Amino acid sequence: MDLFIVITLALLAVMGIVVGVSNDAVNFLNSAFGSKVAKKNVILGVAGLGVMVGVMTSSGMMDVARSGVFYPAMFSYQEIMILFLGMMLSNIILLDIYNSLGLPTSTTVSLVFGLLGSAMALALYNIWSGTTTASLGEFINSGNALAIVSGILLSVVLAFLSGHLLMYISRIIFSFRYSKIFSRYGALWCGITVAGIIYFTVFKGLKSSGLIPEAIIAYVNDNTTISLLILWAGSSVLLWVLQRLSVNILRVSILAGTFSLALAFAGNDLVNFIGVPYAGYDSYMIAQELGEAPASMAALANPTQANFWIMCAAGLIMVITLFTSKKAMRVIETERKLSSQSEEAPTNSEATVASRGIVRGARALNDAIEAITPQRVIKWIDSRFEPLPEEERGDVNYDLIRATVNLTAAAILISIGTQLKLPLSTTYVVFMVSMGTSLADRAWGRESAVYRITGVTTVIMGWFITAVGGFIIALAVTLALVYGGQIAIIGITLLCVGLIIKSNVSGKKKAEKVEESAVQMIGDALKQSPEEALITYTEHVCASMEKVTMIYDRTIVAVFKENRKVLRDMVREAEDFYHSTRQQKYELLPMLRNLQDSDVNTGHYYVQVVDYISETSKALLHITRPCYKHVDNNHTGLSKEQVFDLKRINDRVEEIFGEINTMLRTRSFDSMEKILTMRDEMFDLIDEVMQNQLRRLRDTGGSSSANMLFFNILTETKTMVLHSRNIMKSLEHFIQ
């Protein structure tokens, strides 16, 4: 059984690396990709080199998994193996549940609180069974655990503030039109960033790696100020020479920052992926050397002597994942949008009461500061933050200045955490730095600020959600393993394997079935001529109407059969469709500018089509959600009369949508009058059905919830068909 546990931990370590890198690659690639500093393979190559160097410096961080939150001396060999297995299995269950619910997670937080929950479970088991007289506090390293948790919380605040302050100062110095002043003082400014990166990633992060002579490290530690000045001077001179050789030193700085951030990521986060399996392997080897199962695993408290080949293998898997993971590229694109300089950056975040209050408070504070600041100063500061026109900015999310600040602030903070052996959440650090710099850059305009703040608060809340969930699930799983023995170990392991297979297979199928989104459609259209853009958008409308037809029909049929699973799927489809139309509105102005180069009226009809599609998707969502809620709450089903009436409505809707889809596919609008007649006939039918229902209410009553659902379906169907016909009318003018 011990060998089975070790093999299971090893397989989970490999999967942890693949999943972790796919999710967290955005941390060190976001700035380079967002500013398009180099070609994709060049950026990935630099990051991969940083990862390989970083894994060699992560040996000290492995101690967090071995003795960071509990005292290994208090556990026997069998208990420590159960502890590690329970933590890893609970982590799979945690990720599966949170991914299904769409909740944000952090591998660092899940590691710390998963270990804490597993250790707590075994400690409680020993106390309840009477095998020990020790108290709970003697099992848990509460002081170190509190320091780790505090470090994660503090890093979030420091990341946001440092990113905001550094970006504000940098923009005041260089502004968005930085070419002229940067040619004079750019080497000095980039010299600061390079010097900081070298100091924290090399002399601090690599000091225990053996790659740097101890005499040099001792001198740097004893003469920190002088060492930093020497590094700054040397870096500035080198960059000045490169600048005179027509080398873009901003690109050099960003690639250097990408390397150092990838190094810091690997050094700090590798413990999240393989720390627990590696500790389990060490425990197994200790037992093999002794020839028996130790009654105390105090040896785990000793500093880790990482196996060189295991570290190399882990780094190689990380690099391969980096180059091959499509998911990593999608995650990068999502965060680039959220931190984009564009005011029209799309977001799926719904505004909250808190985010609205923060925006109003910030505006009030800003007004108060402006009231006491001389107008000349305000005008000068505003001139430094005046963004470039879109045609000058190009197809980038932000410029090289911001990318450099992002990398510098994040790399230094993570390197400090690694030096202090604090497993910081690199996801949160990089994300909060990016949010801080975008705020300082005035990317948070009145149109998008409330949504960006909602996104930030969602990430922060994800920390607490992951912490609580990770602790509870690890506690429950480990107790089940302890009391269930070998049967529970095999059973829960097979369950987790099933969850992994299901997640990957269903995710792959879903990815294959996902159609081109509205945002991608517009991105393609912007690269085309106005005439080609019209064709592209017509095809998109055709796909949208076919989706509406499918969702509506399956929803109505599922209500008749009270099929909860189908209704749940239709709610998800409708929500995705609704968010897609919302995102399309954020991309409205770029598309209009492209279209209006040809014809102003074309842009006018485009606005109408976008609005009508959005309203259609909203009506569809207002049908699917109540239907699912009704069945999910086990309310009384629709009566036979209601089912009969809805079937008649559904048949008419199918006829209308079928005619619409035929017109869209053929791009012929000869049947517009026919659709108008069919629409009016269906509205008459809806009025007739409503009158029938009102008579039934007077005569027999019936279920209140079923009656409300029935009326809701009729009302929203009428709205949906009305907007569908309006789509066709506007689309006809749009094309012609």
**Count of individual beta strands:** 0
The helix/strand order is: HHHHHHHHHHHHHHHHHHHHHHHHHHH
Strand share of the residues?
under 5%
Structural class: mainly alpha
Rg measurement, Å: 30 Å
**Separation of the first and last Cα atoms:** 73 Å
Total domains: 2
Question: How many helical stretches?
Answer: 27
Largest sheet: none
The averaged pLDDT comes out at 78
Structural overview:
The termini are far apart. By secondary structure, the chain is mainly alpha-helical. The radius of gyration is 30 Å and the shape is globular. 80% of the residues lie in helices and 0% in strands. The protein has 27 helices and no strands. The relative contact order is 0.11.
Which key features would you list for this structure?
Methane Monooxygenase Hydroxylase, Chain G, domain 1, 2 domains, mainly alpha, 0% strand, 27 helices, 736 residues
Write the SSE topology:
Blueprint: H1 2-24, H2 26-34, H3 40-55, H4 62-67, H5 77-101, H6 107-129, H7 142-174, H8 179-204, H9 214-222, H10 224-244, H11 249-290, H12 308-324, H13 326-338, H14 353-372, H15 375-384, H16 390-393, H17 400-419, H18 426-440, H19 449-513, H20 518-526, H21 530-561, H22 564-586, H23 588-596, H24 600-632, H25 640-666, H26 672-699, H27 704-735
Helix pairs in contact: 1-5, 1-11, 1-12, 1-13, 2-3, 2-11, 2-13, 2-17, 3-11, 3-12, 5-6, 5-11, 5-19, 6-19, 7-17, 7-18, 8-10, 8-11, 8-17, 9-10, 11-17, 14-19, 17-18, 18-19, 20-21, 21-22, 21-24, 21-25, 21-27, 22-24, 23-24, 24-27, 25-26, 25-27, 26-27
